[in-house]
Design brief:
Layout lengths: L3 E5 L3 H12 L5 E5 L3 H6 L9 H7 L2 E4 L6 H7 L8 E4 L6 H8 L3 E6 L9 E7 L5 H12 L2 E5 L6 H9 L1 H18 L4 H22 L3 H8 L5 H11 L2 H22 L2
Helix pairs in contact: 7-12, 8-9
Family: Belongs to the pyrroline-5-carboxylate reductase family.
EC number: 1.5.1.2
GO molecular function: pyrroline-5-carboxylate reductase activity
C-alpha cells in the first residue's frame, strides 16, 4: 500500500524531495510544511501545505528536512503523538538516538544525501535503528531510490565517512571544475569555451567511468601514456603530493562531521 509522506522543511533538500516524490508514483500523497510561506509558494505546493500538527497527524512517514540547529525548537513545538510513526531524517549530524529522545519517537532512519539528489542523481547513505522493521526499511529504500543510489549501513557512525565522501564530494568536484576552468582561461581559451570544455569533459568522464565499469585507476592509466601530456600533468600532481593533500582534506571533512555529531548529543 502506498504511503502518505509529510515533509517538514521546504529548503533546498526538503523542496527537492517534495518535487521528486510529487512527480513519482511511489506515494499516495505528499504534504509539506514550513514556517516560511514563501518557500511553499516557490514550490507551488500551496495545495499540499499543512500546519505542523495536521501534517504529523495525516502522514504515515515523516521526513525531517530542517536545519540541525532548528531541530530542538521544532521538537518543542510538536504536541502530536508520533512514537509509532516512521521518521526519516536528512539532518546532518543529528543521531537517531537524539531524534528519538527529543521527538519521543521509536522508529528513525537517518539519511545522508548529497546535492545531486535534488535531480534524482544522488549518492545516499542511510541507517535505521533496530525498531525499524524489514517492511519499513524496504519502504525507506523505495523512497530514497527516487533520489538516486541508496546504500543502507548497519553502523550509524559510518555516516560520518559517507558525509566526508559523497556528502561533501560534489563540492570537491565543483572545486576541481573551477580550477580547471580558471587554468583554461590562463592558457588563452575564451571563458565560455573553457566552461563548455570543462563541463563536458567531466560529464563525459563520469559517464565513461560508469559505462566501462573497470575502475578509475585503469581509465587513468589508459590516458596517461609515457612521456605524454597527461603524464607531465600527473607528474606535477604527484611531485606536490596531491594524493596526500586530498587524503588530509577528506580526513578533515570526516573529523568535522564527527564534531558536528557531538554538538547535538
Amino acid at each position: 500500500m502506498k504511503k502518505t509522506i509529510g515533509i517538514i522543511g521546504a529548503g533546498n533538500m526538503g523542496g527537492a524531495i517534495y518535487q521528486i516524490l510529487k512527480q513519482s508514483r511511489l506515494v499516495r500523497r505528499v504534504f509539506i510544511c514550513d514556517q516560511h510561506t514563501n518557500k511553499i509558494s516557490a514550490l507551488k505546493a500551496d495545495n499540499d501545505s499543512l500546519s505542523l500538527a495536521d501534517l504529523l497527524t495525516r502522514s504515515d512517514i515523516i521526513i525531517l528536512a530542517v536545519k540541525p540547529q532548528a531541530f530542538k525548537d521544532l521538537a518543542d513545538e510538536i504536541r502530536v503523538e508520533i512514537k509509532n510513526k516512521l521518521i526519516v531524517s536528512v539532518m546532518a549530524g543529528v543521531s537517531t538516538r537524539i531524534i528519538c529522545k527529543l521527538l519521543k519517537a521509536k522508529k528513525v532512519a537517518r539519511v545522508m544525501p548529497n546535492m545531486p539528489a535534488q535531480i534524482g542523481q544522488g549518492a545516499i547513505g542511510w541507517f535505521a535503528n533496530k525498531q525499524v522493521i524489514r517492511t519499513e526499511r524496504l519502504e525507506v529504500t523505495k523512497l530514497l531510490s527516487a533520489l538516486g543510489l541508496t546504500i543502507e549501513f548497519k553502523k550509524e557512525n559510518l555516516l560520518d565517512a559517507v558525509t566526508a565522501v559523497s556528502g561533501s564530494g560534489p563540492a570537491y568536484f565543483f572545486y576541481l571544475c573551477e580550477q580547471l576552468e580558471a587554468g583554461a582561461i590562463k592558457l588563452g581559451l575564451d571563458q565560455k569555451i573553457a566552461k563548455l570544455l570543462v563541463e563536458q569533459t567531466f560529464f563525459g568522464s563520469a559517464a565513461l567511468l560508469k559505462d566501462r565499469n573497470i575502475g578509475a585507476t585503469k581509465l587513468c592509466q589508459a590516458i596517461n601514456s609515457r612521456k605524454g601530456t597527461t603524464a607531465a600533468a600527473i607528474g606535477v600532481l604527484e611531485k606536490n603530493k596531491f594524493a596526500k593533500i586530498f587524503e588530509r582534506a577528506l580526513l578533515a571533512a570526516f573529523r568535522r562531521a564527527r564534531e558536528l555529531s557531538k554538538l547535538y548529543e
